[in-house]
């Protein structure tokens, strides 16, 4: 991966990418048996950090026949040597274990670890600590019925007796890509993920199964990560830029143009312009039909305006003053509160065809996306520097499906959206996904209830516009994919700032916009931001 910005984000490998890493490590002379030994020790350290008393207690370890089961056997040996009383309960005959997992099972038995088949164990009087090593990240399709029954029994035990459950690498039954059960998954108290987190583990919906997530290295060299980059990266607060240029003036931070605000929807354009200012744009101009300008400005003298025509409709032709202003601006936001009327569609089509290559990087949001869905030929005007920001409903309209289909497989929906045009696509929602054709997917791990309020998307659009307008210090910081990722995190952190004051919601979209400057402090003062994991 050539972009240093993207390379600095934590990797989120899929199972096939992990296998590539393991094979590359083996070619360097690092055997899989050593990587599994390191995983067992890492799991032991994480378990002891959560349950220090486990070293003197009984511990049940549920073992499958794959490498996840080998991790469990290895951990059992570490527990035994620390004074615990581990019992490895294997779901399959030990003769079914192959390769490295079989080696670690033999070593654990030789060291004195007790083993017993699960089917002969009646689950009576379970200990306070359980370890899940049944299934790993390589699971495809549904969990086999016999393992579903075991997982259901584990979940029932923990619900009744409040046992502590540590999942090794991933809770058994959880899909490593989507974070969804297949169709059932172990509900862990904590999960230790080896080498790197997996995409499904960081999605908010996975939290009810993963518990507290820890990521531990197992000895795969950094050069392998660099040589075999994975297809997903984690967005966190470290992707924000905190350094400001010296001797700056307003033009140092760009000029954002917001086009939107039809009659009855002027608040959306105001919020986008307001967020643009709060996110750091040096100048913001709102463009709308003349009758709506004062409502968009809404007593904010800092928002400059350009009135189009003398009535409330969008003009069919692009005025010369708008063409000139667009060429002077460094970024655009098109769509908030723009309306979905026929004159809106005519105006947007005229705008895209008239400006052509002279148009700066643009965020297409809200009503503009509906117009694009109704006129898909306009998607050819989207460039690689543009950002499209559909929520699930708008994504469904663009793809010609229903919202449930989008939400059932957001990864697949994002891939299809990226195939529609050259631009960056930001699929909004809890665990926002950011993608672009032939680029890694960026995943936001945040689920912030304070963001689920009317106008929040308009604030995000203005925030993205401000970041697009702002000159970057490095070339890859100007990549619209990176800008989109930074905007998503800045918006999420602003929601967390609101949560400090209104933890049970009640904030407005204007509050989110006004919290954006405080959210930028996250990069300078990380102690104020909740950690994703320890």
From TrEMBL:
(6S)-NADPHX binds at residues 67-71, 136-142, 169, 268, 337, 391, 458. AMP binds at residues 428-432, 457. Its EC number is 4.2.1.136, 5.1.99.6. Transmembrane segments: none annotated. Residues 18-226 form the YjeF N-terminal domain. GO terms for biological process: metabolite repair; nicotinamide nucleotide metabolic process. The keyword NADP applies. InterPro entries: Carbohydrate_kinase_pred_CS, CARKD, Nnr, Ribokinase-like, YjeF_N_dom, YjeF_N_dom_sf. One of its GO terms (molecular function) is NAD(P)HX epimerase activity. The keyword Cytoplasm does not apply. It catalyses: (6S)-NADPHX + ADP = AMP + phosphate + NADPH + H(+); (6R)-NADPHX = (6S)-NADPHX; (6S)-NADHX + ADP = AMP + phosphate + NADH + H(+); (6R)-NADHX = (6S)-NADHX. Its cofactor is Mg(2+); K(+). Keywords: ATP-binding, Isomerase, Lyase, Metal-binding, Multifunctional enzyme, NAD, NADP, Nucleotide-binding, Potassium. PANTHER family: ATP-DEPENDENT (S)-NAD(P)H-HYDRATE DEHYDRATASE (PTHR12592:SF0), ATP-DEPENDENT (S)-NAD(P)H-HYDRATE DEHYDRATASE FAMILY MEMBER (PTHR12592). Homotetramer. Belongs to the NnrD/CARKD family. Belongs to the NnrE/AIBP family. Catalyzes the dehydration of the S-form of NAD(P)HX at the expense of ADP, which is converted to AMP. Together with NAD(P)HX epimerase, which catalyzes the epimerization of the S- and R-forms, the enzyme allows the repair of both epimers of NAD(P)HX, a damaged form of NAD(P)H that is a result of enzymatic or heat-dependent hydration. This is Bifunctional NAD(P)H-hydrate repair enzyme. It comes from Candidatus Desulfovibrio kirbyi. The gene is nnr.
């Amino acid at each position: 991966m050539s972009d240093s910005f993207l390379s600095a984000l934590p990797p989120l490998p899929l199972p096939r990418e992990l296998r590539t890493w393991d094979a590359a490590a083996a070619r360097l002379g690092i055997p899989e048996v050593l990587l599994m030994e390191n995983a067992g020790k890492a799991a032991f350290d994480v378990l002891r950090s959560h349950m220090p008393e486990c070293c003197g207690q009984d511990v049940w370890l549920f073992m499958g026949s794959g490498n996840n089961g080998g991790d469990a056997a290895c951990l059992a040996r570490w527990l035994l040597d620390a004074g615990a009383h581990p019992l490895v309960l294997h779901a399959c005959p030990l003769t079914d274990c192959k390769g490295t997992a079989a080696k670690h099972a033999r070593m654990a038995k030789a060291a004195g670890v007790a083993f017993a088949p699960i089917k002969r164990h009646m689950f009576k009087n379970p200990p306070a600590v359980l370890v899940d090593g049944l299934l790993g990240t390589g699971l495809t399709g549904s969990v086999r019925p016999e393992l579903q029954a075991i997982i259901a029994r584990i979940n029932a035990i923990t619900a009744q007796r409040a046992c502590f459950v540590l999942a090794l690498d991933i809770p058994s039954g959880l899909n490593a890509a989507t974070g969804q059960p297949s169709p059932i998954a172990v509900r862990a108290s904590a999960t230790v993920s080896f080498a790197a987190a997996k995409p499904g583990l960081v999605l908010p919906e996975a939290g009810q199964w993963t518990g507290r997530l820890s990521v531990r290295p197992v000895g795969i060299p950094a050069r392998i990560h660099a040589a075999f980059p994975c297809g997903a990266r984690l967005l966190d607060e470290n992707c924000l830029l905190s350094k400001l240029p010296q001797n700056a003036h307003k033009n140092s931070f760009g000029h954002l143009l917001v086009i939107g605000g039809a009659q009855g929807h002027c608040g959306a354009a105001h919020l986008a312009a307001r967020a643009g200012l709060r996110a750091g744009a040096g100048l913001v101009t709102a463009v709308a039909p003349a009758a709506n300008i004062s409502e968009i400005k809404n007593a904010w003298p800092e928002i400059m305006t350009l009135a189009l025509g003398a009535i409330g409709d969008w003009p069919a032709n692009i005025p010369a003053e708008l063409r000139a202003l667009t060429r002077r601006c460094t970024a655009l936001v098109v769509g908030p509160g723009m309306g979905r009327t026929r004159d809106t569609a005519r105006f947007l089509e005229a705008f895209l065809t008239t400006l052509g290559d002279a148009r700066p990087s643009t965020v297409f949001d809200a009503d503009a996306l509906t117009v694009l869905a109704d006129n898909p030929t306009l998607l050819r005007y989207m460039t690689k520097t543009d950002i499209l920001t559909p929520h699930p409903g708008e994504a469904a309209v663009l793809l010609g499906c229903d919202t449930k289909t989008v939400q059932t497989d957001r990864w697949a929906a994002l891939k299809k959206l990226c195939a529609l045009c050259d631009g960056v696509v930001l699929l909004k929602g809890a665990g926002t996904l950011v993608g672009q054709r032939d680029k890694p997917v960026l995943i936001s791990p945040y689920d912030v209830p304070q963001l689920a309020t009317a106008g929040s998307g308009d604030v995000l659009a203005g925030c993205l516009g401000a970041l697009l307008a702002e000159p970057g210090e490095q070339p890859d910081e100007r990549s619209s994919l990176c800008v989109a990722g930074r905007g998503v995190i800045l918006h999420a952190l602003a929601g967390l700032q609101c949560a400090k004051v209104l933890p049970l919601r009640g904030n407005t979209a204007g509050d989110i916009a006004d919290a954006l400057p405080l959210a930028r402090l996250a990069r300078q003062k990380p102690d104020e931001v909740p950690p994703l994991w320890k």
